[in-house]
Specification:
Elements: E1 2-8, E2 20-26, H1 30-39, E3 44-46, E4 52-54, E5 59-65, E6 72-75, E7 78-82, H2 87-96, E8 99-100, H3 112-118, E9 121-122, E10 125-126, E11 131-138, E12 142-147, E13 165-173, E14 175-176, H4 179-196, H5 217-223, E15 230-231, E16 234-236, E17 244-246, H6 252-270, E18 279-281, H7 286-295
Parallel strand pairs: 2-5, 3-5, 4-18
Antiparallel strand pairs: 1-2, 6-7, 7-13, 8-14, 9-10, 11-12, 11-13, 15-16, 16-17
The structure holds flavin-adenine dinucleotide.
Flavin-adenine dinucleotide binds at residues 14, 44-52, 66, 83, 108-111, 113-115, 117-118, 120-122, 160, 166-167, 197, 200, 204-206, 279, 300.
Length: 304
């Protein structure tokens, strides 16, 4: 299995931010994945790093990255994808087989494992709407299969955020449809994204904050003028105030300081505390850890 020491993680994060990671493993099969989970019980599992701000000071531990676990198997109207399969690739392959249900995943930069973990969603749909079951590695019980109901999905959350569960693969229940209809829905979703969201040529991590109940973080941020906010090399995206762009070699501290500015301004005007969607991996820099605590940003740690 490929493993590297002192790995520059910035080339893998969608934000293009992050220092050196002490050790990183790249399993290619479920067997290799389980082997490394057992032999490196303190390692943290990541997918495509499209929802993680990694500290520019790096991470002093081990990561297991699922990028190389890339298997997709169709069986009738269901499809099973390994943890590392890119959402957008899965969406395109289902469309090519005239199977509908994954059109909302077009242009998703994350991996299936990260998307199940986060219950990722867009265009009024989310993983919970199409997932049939998931194969999970539990540190207590080994490999188990969980049904959709067992996954306890909620808005950008799943049971994997509450229990030490690692996603090995996921099976989705699809429905047959005319391929032109599927393509039309995908095109509509794509053009919505192109209008409203930055592409990955402007490094970013997707929505920074979750939407508060019955409101939108983007609307609140826009109304306090966040589109003009910038700190160091990080700035708010001009077309949608809930995105931060790494414009000019931004550091993780630039991003956290900008998030603090955005969150404080919304809280001062509306009395609403925005909850971050992006997660943080690091911990060596005291100022960053303090800001994470203030922002209530999830610190990624070993899932065990
Ligand atoms: C341009 C852009 C657009 C985006 N659009 C959307 C969108 O429309 N909707 C949306 O919901 N999100 C969106 N995102 C955010 C992001 O893609 C999702 O949160 C996605 O689910 C993260 O997947 P990932 O593989 O990148 O996970 P990572 O960022 O690598 O990890 C996220 C979390 O999942 C955990 N994790 C990853 N893999 C596993 C696994 N196999 N088992 C257990 N835990 C795991 C990690 O420990 C971490 O806590 C967007 C991001 C970008 C950059």
């Amino acid at each position: 299995m490929l493993a590297e020491n002192d790995f520059d993680i910035s080339k893998f994060t969608s934000f293009k931010i992050g220092g050196k990671v002490k050790k990183i493993y790249f399993p290619e099969t479920v067997d290799e994945f389980i082997e490394v989970l057992n032999s490196q019980p303190d390692a943290v599992v990541v997918g495509n790093l499209s929802n993680v701000l990694v500290s520019s000071k790096g991470y002093d531990g081990a990561l297991i990255c699922t990028k190389r676990m890339d298997e997709i198997k169709f069986d009738g109207y269901t499809v099973t994808a390994s943890a590392g399969v890119r959402g957008t690739k899965l969406s395109k392959q289902a469309a090519a087989k005239s199977l509908s249900g994954l059109e909302f995943m077009i242009a998703f930069p994350g991996s299936v494992g990260g998307e199940v973990y986060m219950n990722a969603g867009a265009h009024g749909q989310c993983i919970a709407d199409v997932l049939k079951s998931a194969k999970i590695y539990s540190y207590e019980n080994g490999m188990i299969e969980l049904s959709n109901k067992d996954m306890e999905f909620g808005y950008r959350t799943s049971i994997c955020q509450k229990k030490p569960y690692i996603v090995l693969d996921a099976t989705f229940e699809l429905v047959p449809d005319n391929s032109e209809n599927i393509q039309e829905r995908m095109n509509k979703n794509l053009s919505f994204r192109q209008d409203k969201q930055p592409s990955l040529t402007l490094p970013n991590c997707g929505s920074v904050f979750k939407n508060p109940k019955n409101d939108s973080a983007g609307r609140l941020l826009e109304s306090i003028g966040a589109k003009d906010f910038r700190v160091g090399g990080a700035r708010v995206f001009e077309n949608h105030a809930n995105f931060i762009i790494n414009e000019n070699s931004a550091t993780s501290l630039d991003v956290l300081t900008l998030m603090d500015k955005m969150s404080s301004a919304v809280e001062n005007k509306f009395g609403i505390k925005l909850v971050p969607e992006v997660r943080y991996l690091g911990g060596k820099d005291e100022e960053e850890v303090k800001l994470c605590k203030k922002l209530q940003i999830e610190l990624i740690k070993n899932q065990k």
